[in-house]
What we know:
The protein is mostly helical. It has one domain (21-86): 10k-s Protein, Hypothetical Protein A, Chain A, CATH 1.10.890. The protein is 61% helix and 0% strand. It contains five helices and no strands. The longest helix is centred in the middle third of the chain and has 14 residues, at 37-50. The radius of gyration is 17 Å and the shape is globular. The chain starts with a helix and ends with a helix.
Amino acid sequence: MKLTLSAIALVLLAAPAFAAGPDAATLTCKDFVAADAAGMTADTTAVKAAVKADAKLGALSDADLTTAIQTACKAHADAKVVDALKM
């Protein structure tokens, strides 16, 4: 019984580690700019998945997309990242 309760507690404590990544639909430029390097990488991956159907943006490498996001977010700091890229 103690082993079962310990296993359940461990799973519940580890659950946040398996949380979903960033949501490109709600990711703001302010969130992107405030992120650390790992966060920016995760954000870029999420945005890349969201814009993969776009002929121009979908063809960019991760590094080029990160640069495009940074440029777009400088110009549109209050926008969502996906929207800023299309402005």
